[in-house]
């Protein structure tokens, strides 16, 4: 039997977008870069005994054979990932996983991104732009220093609306305030896409519902195998059980049971906190 070994996934560059909190890695992974489309994600493991975590592919460069990932340091594994730097190798990197974003010529698309979700939204917005759609981007963060990918989005979005909770940049308030205004003033919106924290995506769906506009959300359910076998990522969409890893991660936001998703995401909070504390202690933090 012939075995084809994937080349080691080496980190070519690392940029601390928000020091201590959010970083961007450009990883040499030509076998993934060749196939990855907007909406896809990877699952990676950085230590032999470590857990596997999903991260969205925020961009690709097929010529250079690279993928870009952006992560928020949340717990043990992302903190350990944060310790890696340029030249280091990711132990294993599996992808591209998940269904790619459904992109078709649809006119104007409003892409809404919140926090780290802006990076994933960027790849989807770029895909819509390449397909000839007019992309209006609405991005939100707690404060100006937590905004991501604004320059990149500005390069192809005719309009970029910025919102901050504290008013340090753009509109003081939530992305849904601007979304509501846009939906009221423009009857030709073909689709709304939202990527970000679960409460934000649920709020986007609530605002979009009365306008009867197609609304797509990218769900960050807990994943283990990413192959549709373990059942960890199950979500209820339109009353049916779906697996976010193989049926998604993108779903019709008007049909998602967000309350159930929220509960499932919180299921391992105590264990996650203990594991992070132990990791910090063992690393002198
Ligand atoms: C399809 C998909 C794409 C994602 N893309 C990104 C991304 O681009 N950038 C980013 O920062 N985060 C992304 N996430 C979330 C990321 O996987 C978690 O932040 C990461 O697993 C946290 O691991 P940890 O050990 O550092 O923290 P933990 O302490 O284990 O967990 C912290 C939080 O992360 C969530 N989480 C933990 N393990 C998983 C898991 N295996 N799968 C999903 N969520 C988990 C928990 O609900 C918890 O709220 C994505 C999740 C999914 C499902
Ligand atoms: S992660 Fe196992 S079924 Fe989706």
UniProtKB/TrEMBL annotation:
Annotated protein name in UniProt: Sulfide/dihydroorotate dehydrogenase-like FAD/NAD-binding protein
CDD domains: DHOD_e_trans_like1 (cd06219)
Superkingdom field: Bacteria
The keyword Iron is assigned to this record: yes
Molecular function, one GO term: oxidoreductase activity
Keywords assigned: 2Fe-2S, Iron, Iron-sulfur, Metal-binding
Binding positions ([2Fe-2S] cluster): 230, 233, 245
Pfam families recorded: DHODB_Fe-S_bind, NAD_binding_1
InterPro entries xrefs: Cyt_c3_hydrogenase_gsu (IPR012165), Dihydroorotate_DH_Fe-S-bd (IPR019480), FAD-bd_FR_type (IPR017927), FNR_nucleotide-bd (IPR039261), OxRdtase_FAD/NAD-bd (IPR001433), PyrK_electron_transfer (IPR050353), Riboflavin_synthase-like_b-brl (IPR017938)
Cofactor binding note of this UniProt entry: Binds 1 [2Fe-2S] cluster per subunit.
Domain FAD-binding FR-type: start-end pairs: 4-103
Cofactors: [2Fe-2S] cluster
GO biological process: pyrimidine nucleotide biosynthetic process
